């Protein structure tokens, strides 16, 4: 091993985490406390794909596509997972996570562990059909799904009717800003949501996502401090959250439900900065009621402000994707969309 590889092996290990069903609710906290690891938000910046929990068979194509996005040299590891990934290291003991992942990274850089090959063939997800007068796959000069990637097609903006490009794609199930397992089919004009459908609901979990809200509000250090705290009742963390002014950065009335709560009040609850003063109920509320017309960052705040059970109920009240009625007419079976 060269001295350069030895030096690189001492650096923090960039890890991208893919959560599956049955992942421990405290997994983000465990990883935040693990020395020598750095959880990154894109697989392009990771050396190790860490699968926590079991990814159901229906979402395995997305997991394989996610794996192939990691640059070489790369490896994968499994924790609390029944999945089988060729070459992946299975971790049994929580105390060994940091030690094993750092050893894998060191061996990758030193060359004693070979980089994992692609799971998928290097081919477009859809066959090229050459549809359209110019062979571009769509109508006129735009639209269609050439090679499985939907192209934007003009449609009326719901705010003022102005004809703008509308783009439809799947988002999830491994996007860090979305609850694990959730796959949304969104039609966007710019960053404004024009239509929404649920392709896959979030996995069941007891995880509290107050730290995700802090991340979305541009306070990653405070989010990490919340994860490292022994429990949500840590008085110092709660005081820092109040002093940060994060609550004031959330638009008043955003994501209001029938019980009168909005993202601000649910933020207080998730971060432990106030006692519950309402009984959250989400009957007859769907994501289309909450998200359509919002900009992307507002929609992410709304999604992460609900506990898991409430969000699953809201998803159940939301329509399934209807390819023929959504822009692009995309095929969910072959288009992986935006996973990370």
Overview of the molecule:
- The protein has 11 helices and 9 strands.
- The protein has helices at 3-9, 27-33, 60-68, 97-110, 210-216, 220-228, 235-244, 263-271, 287-291, 296-304, 308-316; strands spanning 13-19, 37-39, 48-52, 75-79, 89-91, 153-156, 163-171, 183-189, 192-200.
- The protein has a 5-stranded parallel β-sheet with strand order 2-1-3-4-5, with helices on one face.
- Helix 2 links the parallel strand 1 (13-19) and strand 2.
How much is the average pLDDT?
Answer: 85
- Compressed to H and E, one letter per element, the order equals HEHEEHEEHEEEEHHHHHHH
Strand order of the largest sheet: 2-1-3-4-5
Instruction: Please provide the count of β strands.
Output: 9
Helix content: 25-40%
What portion of the residues fall into strands of 2 or more residues?
15-25%
- Biggest sheet, in brief? 5 strands, parallel
What value does the Rg take, in angstroms? 21 Å
Terminal Cα span: 33 Å
Structural class of the secondary structure composition?
A: alpha/beta
Global morphology:
globular
Helix count, DSSP H or I runs of 4 or more residues: 11
Spans of 5+ residues with little confidence (pLDDT < 50)?
Answer: 325-337
